[in-house]
Amino acid sequence: MSKPTNKHSSKTREIGYAIPFPQTAESAKKYIREHGLCVTEIARQHNISRFALVDLLRGRRKGFRGETHRAAILLGLKADPTTLKRAA
Hints:
The protein is mainly alpha-helical. The protein has helices at about 25-35, 40-45, 50-60, 65-75. The termini are far apart.
């Protein structure tokens, strides 16, 4: 049996990385649009709710904890805490 293929796979671009930090919600939207990305596909690839991404981009959520925090890091709205250097 052959594996079922995703009908959208040839049309979409993968985003296997976070959008460069720092971004504002408006600049993150612009980045997504200019690079031909789709919010739904970004959400699927990173196992994040599409609504979390959309709410961050619209300014409805701040991304303080949980899934929205992960989404804010992905969109470049917040710095990735795993890459921050600690003060000596």
